[in-house]
């Protein structure tokens, strides 16, 4: 793992081959790697933008695509008000542009690999990105690992990867999906309205055939604290709860 | 390589000689942690100094708080690319911890250990001579739990993952032994001015 990261963390130029609007605030960018790398679901890349006078801005973005995909990786970027890099992606970047990135990075927030203990995923907003990579990997690999995803979004229209998740829920018998909408009533009987709390996490974990062996939590820091505490309340060891915090 | 159409939020009048390459300034204080935020009551807190496997001295919260206090105001730099200027800290300098244990320079390397199982390696030369402390206060207030309270290591001249949160000990080692992130692809030393982010940088 360490060697793999060390060997491939060089900067490379990647062409944007397509852009897709996912939600009102989130777009996906499909980038063709000029130096393809192997990665594990959950990892991220660092992206670097350079201005004509040499000024650079660098940010991290999780990889949304499954490792079994081609040389094209998907990043899903949420527009933040006045965000330096996310606004650039939303307002300026288009297919045909070239972007510098390095990866894969991050050696902790990683799909656990062969094990048949269920995996609990809890995300908010764009925090579902690395969890989506895990679910896509779970489907592509056929590993018999039950997975539950509890995903918090503002509204039904803000649920990133919504249609794909609904389709996966239908096609994968051991995928549990629960959406928590914070600014709208729940749309389905199995969903929730309101912010994620201990009760919701316990309810979703309870839909797995046996208790989860580990949990992955991703989103803003405030969200991650609440969701990680809820995972602790289930009885998971702190070391079995991995978090990725997108900062503020 | 110039990115088409990117100008960025440039820091016209900012003191750019204080922003290492690839970093940008923030006003807030982002939190990055690999797991749940631990809860440690000061009454349950201890700090242990070890040389190799051998414990040399341990302090309770009140004993530790009775050690000489140091204040420092420093710029800090996170490997995820944010930097924050003029952060004010108060705590116990590593020099004073070593002095209280009657230790000079036990070995050239150390590992900081933490309540959540985290660890990180820092050479003694980067801990001693007033360069680092175990911080107990941030901006005059007890260290918030999110930021490592009750106590965190502060090694402000290295990337901030070296400033281990919820620290509960320093272990001196003969060799430079990788800690948590250093085993997971991050640089052994982590100098922001040389952009030592990942293993081979
Ligand atoms: C491991 C990791 C993975 C990540 N994965 C993803 C992902 O998959 N998708 C995703 O969308 N994000 C992801 N993020 C977050 C991402 O890295 C960026 O932090 C995010 O896109 C914001 O960057 P920005 O340049 O747009 O905003 P910034 O310019 O950094 O600003 C962030 C916010 O603070 C405000 N702000 C800060 N400083 C100033 C200032 N000086 N002036 C004005 N406003 C300011 C902005 O208005 C904005 O709302 C990830 C982060 C990490 C650490």
From TrEMBL, chain A:
It holds the Pfam family NAD_binding_1. CDD domains: FNR_iron_sulfur_binding_3. Residues 9-111 form the FAD-binding FR-type domain. Its cofactor is [2Fe-2S] cluster. GO terms for molecular function: oxidoreductase activity. PANTHER family: NADH OXIDOREDUCTASE HCR (PTHR47354), PROTEIN RFBI (PTHR47354:SF5). This is Oxidoreductase. It comes from Bradyrhizobium macuxiense. The lineage of its organism: Bacteria, Pseudomonadati, Pseudomonadota, Alphaproteobacteria, Hyphomicrobiales.
Automatic annotation (TrEMBL), chain B:
It holds the Pfam family Oxidored_molyb. Residues 35-181 form the Oxidoreductase molybdopterin-binding domain. It comes from the Bacteria. Residues 1-23 are annotated as: Disordered. This is Molybdopterin-binding protein.
């Amino acid at each position: 793992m360490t060697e793999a990261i060390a060997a491939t963390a060089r900067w490379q130029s990647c062409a944007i081959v397509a852009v897709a609007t996912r939600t009102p605030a989130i777009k996906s960018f499909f980038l063709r790697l000029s130096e393809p790398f192997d990665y594990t679901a959950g990892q991220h890349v660092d992206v670097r933008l350079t201005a004509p006078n040499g000024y650079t801005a660098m940010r991290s973005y999780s990889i949304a695509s499954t490792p079994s995909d081609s040389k094209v990786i998907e990043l899903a970027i949420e527009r933040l008000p006045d965000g330096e890099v996310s606004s650039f992606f939303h307002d300026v970047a288009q297919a045909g542009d070239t972007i510098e990135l390095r990866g894969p990075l991050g050696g902790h927030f990683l799909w656990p690999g062969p094990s048949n203990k269920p995996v609990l995923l809890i995300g908010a907003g764009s925090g579902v990105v690395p969890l989506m990579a895990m679910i896509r990997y779970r489907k592509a690999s056929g590993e018999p690992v039950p997975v539950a995803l509890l995903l918090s979004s503002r509204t039904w229209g803000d649920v990133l990867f919504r249609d794909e998740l609904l389709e996966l829920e239908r096609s994968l018998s051991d995928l549990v999906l629960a959406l928590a909408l914070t600014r709208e009533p729940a749309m389905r009987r199995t969903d929730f309205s309101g912010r994620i709390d201990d009760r919701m996490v316990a309810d979703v974990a309870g839909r797995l055939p046996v208790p989860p062996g580990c949990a992955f939590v991703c989103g803003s820091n405030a969200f991650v604290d609440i969701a990680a505490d809820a995972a602790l309340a289930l009885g998971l060891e702190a070391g079995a709860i991995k978090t990725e915090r997108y900062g503020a | 390589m110039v990115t088409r159409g990117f100008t960025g939020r440039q820091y016209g009048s900012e003191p750019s000689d204080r922003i290492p390459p690839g970093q940008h300034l923030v006003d807030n204080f982002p939190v990055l942690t690999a797991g749940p935020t631990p809860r440690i009551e000061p009454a349950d807190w201890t700090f242990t100094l070890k040389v190799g496997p051998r414990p040399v001295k341990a302090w309770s919260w009140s004993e530790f708080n009775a050690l000489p206090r140091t204040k420092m105001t420093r710029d800090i730099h996170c490997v995820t690319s944010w930097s924050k200027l003029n952060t004010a800290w108060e705590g116990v300098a590593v020099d004073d911890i070593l002095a209280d244990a009657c230790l000079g320079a036990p070995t050239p390397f150390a590992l900081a250990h933490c309540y959540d199982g985290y660890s990180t390696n820092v050479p003694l030369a980067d801990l001693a001579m007033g360069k680092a402390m175990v911080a107990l206060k941030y901006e005059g207030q007890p260290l918030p739990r999110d930021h490592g309270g009750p106590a965190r290591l502060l090694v402000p001249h290295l990337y901030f993952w070296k400033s281990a949160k919820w620290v509960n000990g320093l272990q001196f080692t003969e060799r430079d032994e990788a800690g948590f992130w250093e085993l997971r692809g991050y640089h052994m030393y982590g100098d922001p001015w040389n952009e030592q982010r990942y293993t081979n940088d």
